[in-house]
Amino acid sequence: MQVSKTQVMAEQSYIYQAGWLVRNYLLADHLVACTSVLVGIYMCKMAYDVTHMISSLYYKGYASLTKIQRIEWNNRGMSSAHAIFITVMSLYLVFFSDLFSDRTEGLVIFRSSSLSIFTLGVSVGYFVSDLAMIFWLYPSLGGIEYVLHHLLSATAISYTMLSGEGQLYTYMVLISETTTPGINLRWFLDTAGMKKSSAYLVNGVMMFIAWLVARILLFIYLFYYIYLYYDQIRQMHTFGYLLTLLVPVALFIMNIMWFTKILRGLRKTLAKRQ
C-alpha cells in the first residue's frame, strides 16, 4: 500500500507535536526559557548603564541633555546592543548552523534547539524591558506604533520560544533588527547637533539601503518561504499558524510606512546639500 506525502507529513506533524507537549512540560526547557528571559533583562540593564557611563566620559554634550533625552540616549544604546546580538545569532542559526538546513531530517517548521530557545528568550527579555520603559515614559520613547510593534514581536517570539514551532520564520524576521543601530545612530547625530555633517548624510544613505534589504526585500523572501513550506505550516497549532501568517504581514505594513518616512527624510537631506 502506497503512503501519500500528505499522510507522511501528517504523521511527522503528530510526532513533532507530541514532542512539543513533552518538551513543554520538561523542567529543563522551562529553566532555559525562564533563565534566558532574565538574562535578556539583565543584559538590557547592563547595556543601558554602560551607555550612560561611556557617554558621560567621552561625550561632553551628554550632561547638557534633558533628563528625557538622556534616558532615550541610554535606551537607544540598549536597543542597539540587542539588535547586534540578535542579528548575529539569527544569521548564524538561519544560514550557518545545521538547525534549519535541508540536510537535517524532519519538518523544518518544528525544529528548535537549546541555543535557539535561549536566544529567543534573551530577545523576549529585551522587548519586555523596552515595553516597560515605553509605558513608563509614554509617549516620549515612542507612540502607539512602537507599542503595537513590540507587543506583536514579544507575543510571537514568546510563543515560538515555548512551543518550538516556526522558529525559522521568527529568526528570519529578527534579521531585520540589523537596521536598528543605524536608526539609533541617526538619532544620536541629530541630538548631538550634527544633522548637517557628512556622517549624518552617509548614515541616512546606509540606513535607506539597509531598510530596503532587511525590512522590505527580506520580508518578500520570507513570504515566498512561507508559501514554499505552507504544507508544513498547516500542521502547526492554530495560534502558531495564525502568528506565522499574520504577524509578518502586520510588521511588513509598518516597515513600509516607516520606509516612506526614511525616504522623505533622505530626500530632504539631499535637497539641502544641493
Q: Outline, from the CA principal axes?
A: globular
Give me the Rg, rounded. Answer: 21 Å
Output the number of helix runs: 10
Order of helices and strands: HHHHHHHHHH
What is the residue-mean pLDDT, rounded to a whole number?
89
* Total beta strand runs: 0
Which sheet architecture does the biggest sheet show? none
Assess the beta-strand content as a share of residues.
under 5%
Give the class from helix and strand content and strand pairing: mainly alpha
Structure report:
Helices cover 79% and strands 0% of the residues. With 274 residues, it is mostly helical. Helix 2 (27-58) packs across helix 4. The longest helix is centred in the C-terminal third of the chain and has 36 residues, at 238-273. It is globular and about 65 Å long. The termini are far apart. The mean pLDDT is 89.
Question: Which key features would you list for this structure?
Answer:
274 residues, single chain, globular, mainly alpha
Question: What's the SSE blueprint?
Answer:
Blueprint: H1 5-24, H2 27-58, H3 67-96, H4 114-136, H5 144-163, H6 167-174, H7 180-191, H8 198-228, H9 230-233, H10 238-273
Helix pairs in contact: 2-3, 2-4, 3-4, 3-6, 3-7, 4-5, 5-10, 7-8, 8-10
Quick structural overview:
With 274 residues, this protein is mainly α. The chain contains 10 helices and no strands.
